[in-house]
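Subgroup meeting minutes
Present: P.N., E.W., G.H.
Scribe: E.W.

1. P.N. recapped why we're keeping a running log of single-chain structure predictions: easier to compare across weeks, and new members can see raw inputs and outputs side by side.
2. G.H. added today's entry (113 aa).
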Amino acid sequence: MSLAMKLERIRAEIERMRHQISRQRKDIQSLQRAESGAFDSFWKDGVMAKPYSDDLRVRAIAIVEGGASRHEVAALLEVSPSSVINWLRRWSDDGRQHGNQVGTPRGIGQPRR
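Output recorded in log:
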């Protein structure tokens, strides 16, 4: 077998391994979806993650009100402890159990002050 043929086989094997690694990364990313459908990582392909569902937020608040710790609830629902803490803070401050509306931020199209 010539050296050129050996190099070509090695190149083909490297390309096959790259493709396999890429496929495995996609599989891992799909497994990282939380219950609400949001990604555990903040960015994926340059797009922000989806917000957690209102149902998930309401369940977290109810469980903490039932006596569980915020960190226990975060582990149970597979979200970050800071998310649960922020939901409870928002709920105790103004009674809101839902997140902010997704879309154009307030003030877009208005002149600066």
